[in-house]
Write a structure and sequence with these properties.
Two copies of one chain form a homodimer. Chain A is of the alpha/beta class. Chain A has ten helices and 13 strands. In chain A, helix 5 links the parallel strand 5 and strand 6.
Chain lengths: 350, 350
């Protein structure tokens, strides 16, 4: 016998590679190609290093209040964490404690099953239809919770709010998490349903539409009761997850609505142009409402295209998984980056 | 039935209050009274806001390498997290999965039982002796893990390394965590034992001796096998816990050894002077090796002194708990802050 018998052994999530090469084109982890709001830079410049010696506000009220104002909810409806991964992990730990399985799509964010395994939560995946849309009836069976990303990743498909509402309404005994990491690129949020459904938790992130993946900020919005449960667990894990810097930078970002609208609109425009170009090159894809396109080619295998792009220092994401192993997830970059991608694809494919 | 039946209900840790009043004297959460190293300020000033759009290095190598160099271990022996609370929470989740109880002192950091409850880990507390020292034999019974803070909090007592080594050596089948949050104030670390004992994990923090409570950085050092298990769980929880800012600021702090030695020595000098003064005022206390003094008064109750200090905008910590409800935990501040405290105590007591 050894201490190793008591170790929680897991198969961890493998994040997308984070290469750091000069001139590389990085379209593999759905980061924003534009910098954060200039107000974030200002907030960083104005940081008082001396305050660093003090613990931050454990209630993160500076950031919570800014988010509450932006999304027109009360501060007691907002929970913040170290990226939406932290928020989702805490939510799994808080809400998914049934013997019945938690349900989520078979093709989805690859962290859901990792969290379920970590916390020993039973789960079942619900197969997406052939066209990658969600089959709502799958979520009507007994369950211990539901998590659905909308738009879904890595497909990019947006499920209409009505369909999600059916699922939420049909499951009053389960917390239903809608993971809206990618909702800001012309998607429609379920946030307006929060007041109506006490079992609904909406999770969003600063990593994509607010260009702050490196700042590690995510948040959840729900009714006060859900948020209080979540905070109880959070305060049982780590009282101070958000540094002074996260709080100040996050607040600055939320308050610059104009910049947010501008960069998300720009990404949407680039995405729509990219769809045309990719179609011309022989790709097909679900109609993405996210900041990436999930594309398969009519002739050449995805893995081969992935490798050949990589040789050219262009990084996209390839998942070697059932049903999606002939797809590439291509993050929408700047127009210039996309032109470089198309030029490379032309070389590779034509 | 309702979703609430599946909520993980916990009694969360209540952090010390974080008042923010002009001219207050804050001696209640063991923060450092001096600012972080000037190199930290420099690192903050030099931050490239544009990099914020990219995910940080998930392996945190910049900070891990700096810590490895400072503590003369290999990078694969270092784990970093969002404060030592995050590191400890992950360690509980990773290593304490036995049906046998985890052991820790009855008077200790009040988060240990909170984590145990959160993760449903059975535990037993081992009573400290009357003089607050640890009774080593208590840790020789069958257990699922051990966690001991050294110096202990809130007593401030340092247990000799030899005593801890007996416990570590006697428990090869358990991971033994030595929580050294307060070791840098003239304490002796068990770090030199790490190469010898594969079941030893040493946890430290930037919150006290490096004056960076607001930056949220903690770390663990152990043999590569332990660190790998810990990283697996961490990567199953949140791939990117450390922001760009934490990595850069943490590295800058670790690299300024001179400043670190200077401020910790200054706090030790102030502490030793404070002991004399408190004794004169009728207090007694275990001989602290931490950045706080855990004191009881010969006449006046601790709660009363606490309240009267508070009226004067001087904040210390009072724990309404068995065995220690007549003690105050007083953080060692600057000499000026301590003089103000003594003046107030003279008014209150004499």
């Amino acid at each position: 016998m050894s201490f190793e018998e008591n170790v929680r052994k897991v198969i961890p999530y493998v994040p997308g590679e984070q290469p750091n090469r000069p001139n590389m084109i990085k379209l593999n982890t759905n980061e924003c190609p534009y910098p954060p709001s200039p107000r974030v830079e200002e907030a960083l410049q104005n940081l008082d290093a001396d305050r660093m010696r003090l613990y931050p506000d454990p209630t993160a009220s500076e950031l919570v209040n800014a988010l509450a104002a932006r999304y027109q909810v009360n501060p007691d409806q907002v929970f913040v964490g170290v990226g939406s991964d932290d928020v989702l992990a805490m939510s799994f730990l808080t809400f998914f404690n049934s013997e019945k399985p938690v349900l989520f799509p078979d093709i989805t964010y690859s962290f859901y099953d990792v969290w379920a395994d970590l916390f020993r939560i039973p789960y079942q995946t619900c197969p997406l239809r052939e066209d990658f849309t969600i089959c709502g009836e799958d979520y009507l069976r007994p369950n211990g919770g539901i998590v659905i990303p909308n738009p879904n990743a890595p497909t990019g498909l947006l499920e209409p709010v009505d369909n999600l509402e059916c699922i939420i309404a049909a499951n009053p005994d389960s917390v239903v998490i809608i993971d809206e990491a990618y909702v800001d690129f012309d998607g429609e949020s379920v946030l307006p349903l929060v007041d109506q459904y006490e079992n609904l938790l909406v999770v969003q992130t600063f990593s994509k539409s607010r260009a702050m993946a490196g700042a590690r900020i995510g948040f959840a919005i729900g009714q006060p009761k859900l948020i209080a449960y979540l905070n109880d667990v959070k305060f049982s894990f780590n009282s101070y997850t958000m540094s002074h810097v996260s709080l100040a930078a996050g607040k600055a970002a939320v308050e610059d609505e104009t910049y947010f609208q501008e960069i998300t609109a720009r990404i949407v425009r680039t995405r729509e142009r990219a769809k045309e170009e990719l179609r011309t090159l022989g790709f097909s894809f679900p109609d993405s409402k996210a900041n990436f396109i999930f594309a398969t080619h009519e002739r050449m295998g995805a893995k081969e295209i992935f490798d050949r792009l990589r040789e050219r220092d262009i990084y996209v994401r390839y998942f070697n998984k059932p049903r999606i192993d002939d797809y590439l997830r291509i993050t929408v970059g700047t127009d210039e980056q996309m032109e470089a991608l198309f030029a490379a694809l032309r070389e590779i494919l034509l």
